Amino acid sequence: MTGDKTNLDRRTFLKSAAVVGASRMASGNTSKMPMDAHRQQAWSMKMVVPVEPGIVCVDIERMLEFYSGVLGLKVVSDAEATAEMSKRFKAAPNGFRIVRLQTPYGERVKLVQTTLRGQRIPITEWTFERPGLAYLTFVIADMKEMLARFDDSHVRLVNEEPLEVRPGFHALFVLDPEDNYLEFVEYQDPASYRPDLFKWRQFF
Prior knowledge:
The chain is an alpha+beta fold. It has helices at 2-26, 60-70, 83-88, 143-152, 190-193, 195-200, and strands at residues 54-56, 74-81, 96-102, 108-114, 135-139, 156-157, 163-166, 169-175, 181-187. Helices cover 30% and strands 25% of the residues.
């Protein structure tokens, strides 16, 4: 009975948070669009699964240990592509290995290794100094827990500690084993950031 009450209270809280978050955005000043507002547009591609970023690795085993062992992503497939297919696809001349890992929320990160001599991207003074695909963002529930995990695993932090970018929003950049930037953020009220998700999500 106590467990049912706890679940009910959590559902009520999260649903209320979603309504409050959506209301704040709807009642805001339309002359200045906030950073996390969604613009109206005429067309959008029809996606059927979450986006899947890919990372080409120098040492895939070391990267796999980090993303699976440290971050806790689940390995869902580990496959080898033939040289013939890889050439036709213009991916690599001699085939490649691709490991797919899944986050608790359903996104997948793909780690790829080929026989090509890949070069690690040098660390820059500023995270946004790198052009192109510069970093991945993980929106997490507990920053303190994540910091303890990073400390235990000797993960390199870009910032000395999480920064409160604005009230209720903390962010931290770290480096993976091959110097790719990863951002970890915690929202006090995640429904205000993604009301589109909290509006329809079933809470348990």
